[in-house]
Write a structure and sequence with these properties.
The protein is of the alpha+beta class. The protein is built from five helices and four strands. Strands 1-2 form a two-stranded antiparallel ribbon. It has a two-stranded antiparallel sheet with strand order 3-4. Strand 1 and strand 2 form a beta hairpin. Helix 1 runs antiparallel to helix 2.
Length: about 100
């Protein structure tokens, strides 16, 4: 759950994007990306991160999307229980001038 100040900022972002010529879907896309970043679930430059994974041959770029190349890697991530993922994020955190970025130790 986001603090009130961040929720207010997100509302203002939605309103500003919507009034600035963005459609509701475009505004929602950016709000979701910002929310995921603020909660430490994704890196800020997500597309750059996915492109890097594609260069490492972990993912394959297909059109505008990405798919796992290795079936075992896909199954590994799919089998990790949600509670374990949350615990891993809480094991260590590093503040990097913005939201908390979690790092596994």
């Amino acid at each position: 759950m986001l603090p009130d100040s961040e929720r207010t900022s997100l509302r203002r972002l939605i309103f500003g994007l919507n009034r600035g010529g963005f459609s509701r879907d475009q505004a929602l896309y950016y709000v979701v990306r910002m929310t995921l970043w603020l909660n430490g679930h994704t890196p800020f430059k997500f597309v750059k991160f996915l492109d890097h994974c594609a260069r490492l041959i972990l993912l394959k770029k297909v059109g505008v999307g990405y798919i796992f190349i290795h079936r075992m890697l896909l199954e590994y991530f799919a089998e990790i229980p949600q509670s374990t993922r949350s615990e891993d994020r809480e094991t260590a955190s590093i503040t990097n001038g913005g939201p908390t970025v979690s790092k596994r130790v």
